Amino acid sequence: xxxxxxxxxxxxxxxxxxxxxxxxxxxxxxxxxxxxxxxxxxxxxxxxxxxxxxxxxxxxxxxxxxxxxxxxxxxxxxxxxxxxxxxxxxxxxxxxxxxxxxxxxxxxxxxxxxxxxxxxxxxxxxxxxxxxxxxxxxxxxxxxxxxxxxxxxxxxxxxxxxxxxxxxxxxxxxxxxxxxxxxxxxxxxxxxxxxxxxxxxxx
Length: 203
Fold this sequence. Notes:
- The chain is of the alpha/beta class.
- It has a domain at 5-140: Beta Polymerase, domain 2.
- It is 18% helix and 28% strand.
- The strands form 3 sheets. A 5-stranded mixed sheet has the order 1-2-5-4-3, covered by helices on one side. A two-stranded parallel ribbon has the order 6-7. The protein has a two-stranded antiparallel sheet with strand order 8-9.
- The longest helix has 15 residues, at 5-19.
- The mean pLDDT is 87.
């Protein structure tokens, strides 16, 4: 059941009062409270949300990221939390870039372990203090981070099994395509040239 806007707005103001300058903004959108917080204060923000009896966001639901390459801090690190006691959800957003580590929050939410690894693998965000930060979805030696907006859709390497070498081999991507002449102007009448494979068709 969604909370009403007034209740969520009051909750946002209470969180801002409790955390001061650590929280930049609190807004209600689509029936959910969204907080924008200071990245350096990640552990403080999440600990207060977790422990303060007014909030009690004990349930870690999800952690993900979003990429905005045009910004100086291109990534939004997005936490979704649930308070079973108050039947309320909150979204907490921290901004980050690829060069400065983000504090790991495993000490507050141990279940975030693999989620932080996934964000590292897909976006390249480094979580400082994570006990085992390594790729978990891509292969060893994978180049780049697939969910970044500037990652090529073809990737950098292709993988295939080589019968002669009897092993999996990695090769640079080759996008070879023969020149084709498509006629999209008259789909009902057909083309004025013979399509490949139609040479034997009756005229």
